[in-house]
Structure prediction request, 236 residues.
Amino acid sequence: MVNAAVSDDIASGLGISRRITPTFGYYRQSNGWITISPNTRLERLKYTEQGWTYLEQYGAFDMTTYTASHPFDGLFMFGGAKEMPVAQVIETGLYIDPPLVPRCKQHLTQYHRSHGRECWAGAVRVEFPQLEGVAKELIGPFVCDFCKRKMPTVDAREQHQSVAHARTLGNVQLGQTLGDTLAGALGRHVPEAGGLTNIQARRLAELEAKEEARRAKGRENAKKYPRKAKKNLVAS
Ligand SMILES: [Zn+2]
Ligand SMILES: [Zn+2]
Prediction:
């Protein structure tokens, strides 16, 4: 690719007239979260009016399929990991397997259309200094009790379990004990809590508390919203 590199240099040397201004950049949204969005004058004006801040110092780039699936590479490459609020790092799960960051310090533009092997040489994972001092119990990953998927937050795990494992959790509601369900998920019969590791026992206790809270809420709602007589929806 020597030719391409040379012509890129010539193109950048020739400068301005042939230069296509990259049209995306980083913004801090009004909730603090960092996002990529178009950075044309008009767009910047629009975003600024709605309370966003354009983070000019992290440069501009083109939208490519790579950028779409690695939106923050550019930010990280120029030392911007620290800009992300703790909530974004945690809730998006970026901290679980932090991405490797190319080392070329070049955004994807007409002059650098993709990151080549040399861009990745010696690449290291991005670090988030803002996670220092965050309560340990907020830092996962929180592993799904049933399929072992790593989830970024406790809420995400509950949400995932209630959707992806609705049937298994449903069995619990049908009277099977949580212990049996978990034992099944763990692939062995666990006769009593003594057979569980500390972590499993703690999770079991958590789930049981949650389940009890859910049942209590159900009873409360049943009182608050007494079931109406079923309407006959099928016209016969
Ligand atoms: Zn590169
Ligand atoms: Zn799962």
Summary: The two ends are 73 Å apart (CA to CA).
